[in-house]
Amino acid sequence: MPPSPTHRVPRKKVAVVGSGSAGIAALWALNRTHHDVYLYEAAGRLGGHTNTVPFHHGKYTTLVDTGFIVMNTATYPNFINFLKKIGVPTAVTEMSFGISRDHGLFEWAGTSLGAIFCQLRNVFSWRMWRMIFDIVRFNQLALDLLRYEEGHDTNSKKRIDLDESIGHYLEREGYSDAFRDDYLIPMTACVWSTSPDKCLLEFPAITLVRFLPDWLTIPDGSKAYVDAVMKGFPPNHLFLNTPVKSLSNDADGRVRLHLEGGKSEVYDHVILATHGDQAYSIIQDSATPQERQIMSCFETSANTAFLHSDLSLMPVSRKAWSSWNFLTLSNRDTGRSNTDQVSLTYNMNILQHIPRDIFGDVLVTLNPLHDPDPKTVQGRFEYRHPLYTPAAVRAQGMLDRIQNKRGISYAGAWTKYGFHEDGFSSGLKVATEHLGANLPFQFKDSTFSRGKKPRLGLKNLFIRMGIHWLQIWLDALGWLGRLVFGTPVPAYRMNGNGMTNGRKANGVNGVNGHHGMNGTKERLA
Description:
Layout: E1 13-17, H1 21-31, E2 36-40, E3 52-57, E4 60-65, E5 70-72, H2 77-86, E6 91-93, E7 97-101, E8 106-109, H3 113-116, H4 126-141, H5 144-149, H6 166-173, H7 177-191, H8 196-199, H9 205-209, E9 215-217, H10 223-230, E10 238-239, E11 244-249, E12 255-259, E13 264-267, E14 269-272, H11 276-283, H12 289-295, E15 300-308, E16 324-330, E17 337-347, H13 348-351, H14 356-359, E18 363-366, E19 379-386, H15 390-398, E20 408-410, H16 420-435, H17 446-451, H18 458-485, E21 499-500, E22 503-504
Parallel strand pairs: 1-2, 1-14, 2-10, 7-16, 14-20
Antiparallel strand pairs: 3-4, 5-9, 6-9, 7-8, 11-12, 12-13, 15-18, 15-19, 16-17, 17-18, 21-22
Helix pairs in contact: 1-16, 4-7, 4-18
InterPro entries: Amino_oxidase, FAD/NAD-bd_sf, Zeta_carotene_desat/Oxidored
Domain Amine oxidase: 22-433
Protein name: Amine oxidase
């Protein structure tokens, strides 16, 4: 049902708390109404993860995004329509992925065959070939999960647990450790800009599978859209460096915001466009039992980003250089990945088309293995990202029960999958549904743009048939290896007890998790 026209909603004094994607979206939508709107931001700048900063190289300066960097053509319908309406251009970008383990001991990237085997010894590595096979298999078969979620194949004997974790799914389907540790976990961490020990294998498999390729960036930096929205906004309605400590309801039902220093302001309606845990902190003192039950499930993790040009935080082999570069150190005791020692480096020369011959190497590293050389650093930034635990995902499904109650709306990327679109769409949604704002384009639920199972063509059927027979061959080879050598040749397969090569899966290596993905434009399948 479309939202009521604005004129049917009485004029209200509205406070938007938080100026990230959700807050800016709500503000933009409400700016087009008769409501009296105010914006509160705890920081000294607007934008949240939309943080565009200058990068200097000699006499040249360019703008670089350090938080929100790219968007997806298939899964960002509202945000892209919004950019078109305000006249902010976009440009196609490359989303390639590479990994470097133990200072270059093991490296690969998905940009080309030469990048996959940038280390020639990997041509003879069973683990490498098994990973490639599992990537192709996963990209073909994992989206079948959505068929069951959408109610297809109801006569099938196969039943899918909608809460099944991606870790359990990989275990059940016999995916290799190599696929898990050297592809899926690093890829997921890169896409959601989240530390691998915080986000991954406990995440529901069906939610994880909703992912599509084809990416865009904003040439002049993502801050361009924030500036466009704020143009003409009354300065006396904007409160920077003004954290909201708590809120309460007055006797007449209006919402009172309690600010630092003992000050307070009263509003008819408040939109909490913050992280979920921050929203809970604000409402906690006055929360109802239901609000506590739901909002206490949302958590975030802290992440540090550096803008720099230190190449020691890139893969050793330039053939492995990609848009996203996952670097990790192995645990000396087990030889396996240590979740406390991982970092993600975004190659901004590729992502934002910044000429290397003019500006040199422009890199953004999240949680670096070591601090970059201070001489190369041009900025350090702290960001928080939502954690997607099963409890948080279940709480998302109950959020409507407390929306628009007590004069409070909740918005943010944490209400869906953690993408910029999710935050932006949530801001638009509360502005239209709760306050009667009208949009100059049709609102689209991006849930469905991620959840549609693609049609299978003849090519897909042949690929699946080949995967099936190759899987039989691999299983037979493993059985032969056990018979002859006492050890299966595919030594990187998970068994039914959550054990990997005799060790209990843990953190980045086990069932610990902004979704498996249908690839990210990797040229492997």
